[in-house]
Amino acid sequence: MAFPRTFTIPLIVACALFMEQMDSTVISTSLPVLAVDMAVDPISLKLALTSYLVSLAVFIPISGWMADRFGALTIFRSAICVFMMGSILCGISQNLPEFVAARFFQGIGGAMMVPVGRLVILRSVDKANLVKALSYLTIPAMFGPVLGPPLGGFITTYFHWRWIFFINIPISILGLYLATRFIENKKEAQVAPLDWPGFILSALGCSLLMMGLATAGRHLVSGEISLACVVVGALSLVAYVWHARRTEYPLIDLNLLKITTLQAGVGGGSLFRLGIGAIPFLLPLMLQLGFGFTAFHSGLLTCASAAGAMFMKTIAAKFLKRYGFRRVMIINGTCGVISLAAIGLFTQTTPYAVMLIVLLIGGCFRSLQFTSLNAISYADVDTHKLSQATSIASVAQQLSVGMGVVLGGFALQTSNHLQGHATLVAQDFWPAFLTVAVAASFSIPLLMRLPANAGAELAGRASESAPAAKPTSA
Prior knowledge:
globular; disordered C terminus; 0% strand; 474 residues
């Protein structure tokens, strides 16, 4: 029996997303053990998370161009191979610099793998079925975060953390087979020349700014070098904005941000992810270093959030159809911020069941918000601009998650220092969670600027459909 493309294509791409999501959650659970094995400060391991995200931000902008030029299937398969090789290099790393470099290389594969896969879906599914297709994509992918924490904790506790990276090898092989069999190698007939100056400026800006912020605090490099990276990175990004407004074919077309729905999805989504992005870094550290849980015990608890997210994916489309994007994102986003702050209230005496329920419900809120933000971003984007819009949304997403890790690490480090603790203790974590929750709350005012009927076609609210949202000034 032949399955519809709305179902088949998202499930194939989900293999790649499953692998990436499981990889990131497995690593998060193993951070405290990694710190001991590599003899480094646990906070310094934020570099292991941010280096991967920096790589994504650097190479995602050219993923759309490469898919247009060489074909989506060619780039998708190449990306899986690079990701698999990066996983092997992570597994054989002997120290923090090697591990950070391996994660950066792994990120090159991730930068091409998931955005190109998402682009395949956007070009294969009509807008009326897009929310459903994205839900099909994320349901299998959510098994990664569900399985990742307990699996990573189990392997780390009872075997060795290195084995967690070799899990990607069989998944990669399966993804290569399915992609080869079912995905067409579509190319664009006319492809604009690659904006090399723009690529260099954006690569320098994203990587130096993020790494400068991530290394602040005596990790790997001196404070002077960290500051220099921040300054040069910021100037490079300013130079890119100047360049993009004066070139015919910019790497990232910032004019697309004049579209109201894309502007809200990218801007509001970035601020929301700024807070949520800190959870994979802060939560395992709090449970293991603050509360004394084993990696396995910690993993079993943290997977509750992913379980809630997976459940919400199955009914997200119904919420959006009944209440519309604007109302759902404002109310649900507020609940998501509250659930994030609530994690900071956990103590060593908090009942296990209470922590489980808070994480489970919080996962539901975050899942619905991410599904809504991902879909609304493309509501009014023309088909021939989808690769550019995908690049903008994907870069913003990775940078905001990386900045969330940086912000969470900085808040945790500051809290630890101000309270005068020699090592990380449970009391150091609540200010960090409060800080990232406040950061996430700034997304709500941006989402309130959306018109009431925004994304009506995507939500299946035909009676409210209106012409594409008018551009506003970025």
